[in-house]
From TrEMBL:
Name used for this protein in its record: Alkyl hydroperoxide reductase/ Thiol specific antioxidant/ Mal allergen
Taxonomy, superkingdom: Bacteria
InterPro entries: AhpC/TSA (IPR000866), PRX-like1 (IPR047262), Thioredoxin-like_sf (IPR036249), Thioredoxin_domain (IPR013766)
Domain Thioredoxin: 9-161
A Pfam family that the UniProt record links to this protein: AhpC-TSA
One term of GO molecular function: oxidoreductase activity
Amino acid sequence: MASTETPVCDFGLPAPDFALPGVDGKTWTRDQCKGEHGLLVMFICNHCPYVKAVRDRIVRDTRELAKLGIGCVAIMSNDTADYPEDSFDNMKRIAEAFDFPFPYLLDETQEIAQAYGAVCTPDFFGYDADLGLQYRGRLDASRKEAAAPDVRRDLFEAMKQVAETGSGPADQIPSIGCSIKWRER
């Protein structure tokens, strides 16, 4: 399990479009996921300890962001042949168990992860109302274990700022997590 850190935010970079199957049986596009004030695209998976440590916080923050007009979506891009815990059936099970308030989508070809430049799970991409990148940072100070409950909510605060002003914070701390599990080509 390689630990990887996300690159610095490339402000204004447009959000690539997608049409991916969700655990709810629907096909979702970028524009269907977008909210009035922006879009949060999260690359997560089921098996990663970094994601497991913060799933409840992701649910909390996305529920609150939805009230601010930020649409949220999670995409799973790992190679499910080598990582069966990340299978579509297990994605359904996790989404139901944690009551995900956002679409949870499978990127089976891994083309969407490549288009976004996703490198790890979790990897967060926060976009403004015009779908320009404004945040590429961490959820909070959690690592493989959840940080203290009262830590600064970096992702939530950044996306709240995006909803209110259209711009993300200049200073962003990278997310860290397990590398995306790419298929051999």
